[in-house]
Amino acid sequence: MLTIGIDSGTQGTKCLILDTETGGILATAARSYGFIEDLPPGHMEQDPRVWINAVDDTIRECIAQVGGRKDEVAGIGVSGQQHGLVALNKETEVIRPAKLWCDTSTGKQCEQFSQEFGGTEGMVKLAGNPILPGYTAPKILWMKQNEPSNFAALYWVLLPHDYINFWLTGVKRMEYGDASGTGLMDVRKRVWCDPLCDFIDPRVQGFLPKAESSRGVTGLLREKLRKQWGLKSSPTVSAGGGDNMMGALGTGNIQEGMVTASLGTSGTLYSRAKEPVVDKEGDVAAFCDSTDGWLPLICTMNVTVATEQVRHLFGWDHAALDEALANTPAGAEGVLFLPYLNGERTPNLPHGCGVLHGLTTRNMTPAHIARAVTEGVTMGLAYGLKRFRGLGVTPKEIRLTGGGSNSPLWRQICANVFGVPTVCLKSAEGAALGAAVQACWANDLVNGRSVNLGQLTERLVKVDEKTRAEPEEETTELYQALLGRQTDLTRKLHAVGYE
User: Fold this and answer.
1) Choosing a second label site near 11 at 20 to 30 A (CA), which of 34, 266, 272, 473?
2) Can you tell me the distance from the alpha carbon of 491 to that of 181, in angstroms, rounded to the nearest whole number?
3) Which residues carry out catalysis?
4) What is the arithmetic mean of pLDDT over 157-181?
């Protein structure tokens, strides 16, 4: 059996075709795109048609690559960027561009939720999570308050992967994992939270499809698309999920004690749990996963976005950046970087900015700055890992994904900062692979075939032992001290209004 995995992300779409018997990836394709330009600061939007065109193009390209085996395609799975607001009218037409996860224009609306429900403590008690600028809930309230005519036309609210599934099948559906990232779900019970929905508007719960199991299927591929793509029969389209939920499947992260860390433009750290992991301080997101379990997660908005800034600032290629890291000692001889170039989500500093601290005439060099920036963004993730440990999530191994994990030096920095062995996967397509794995799993379940997800991921998801890095005790102790310093400096600057 072959399955198609789609990863519709912020900067582009990737597609692959997986042979579910051998674990081989038979075809890949990708398309890049950007954001709508010239929007006010903090507004990040995309036209959903851009995603659809990219999905259509990449699927066609992958199908062409497998030639005569295309008739073996039995399932399709979709991973999508979390939290985005796709607003549809009664005729299921897109009303306005999608506001994305990285849109920070909803700070005022988040404050309104906070005041109404007793701050972070009250919202966590009510539904398991605070309302943050990236989430879908404040975007809906923002639309009501700033675009009343668009809100009056609103009839359906979908997330990006739901919208792609709707285009594929004609079915509007939400599954627990991605739905938990809207901010409107009581994650303990996996149902919509009436008070939060009604605070926006009494109509809101009617806009949302019923949240359902992630183990199911959305439907069959539309006949029109089946014919256009030249498939013999319509594959099943699985429930799909958010990119982090699919990334967990694509890295084999389906058991407690394993953690996935993504070193992409932004950063994520997440693990699998059998019960809800609710953080009363609100740092760790209490999400659901795509296996009907839970996915405690932290997200930082600044990882390779910061290291790429350094690279461009000094005119380096990636090899030159690695050389700078290698030739500078751990701790960058006192240079510390607060990595909040795009604001920050963990800790919650939507208006935060970056800081270089500890500069002297000795350490104010390109190499020291590069080392400090790389360490700073990694310690941003370690702040979240420390919160994980405080909530009883004990990491035994961290699986690295994202562009930053291509650097052996950065992988070692991660092992030392996290204090846990790290390893990469043989396939770098975590979310797309996870979507293809879920498509296989869902297809087997809907057809009555007994399948063990653990055995399935063991067969289809392979670690690359050549990339394994073990923590070095002395350096790990140094980074623990630096993390305390970074956290303390962040709190002190925030307390006096210097975000």
Assistant:
1) 272
2) 26
3) 243
4) 97
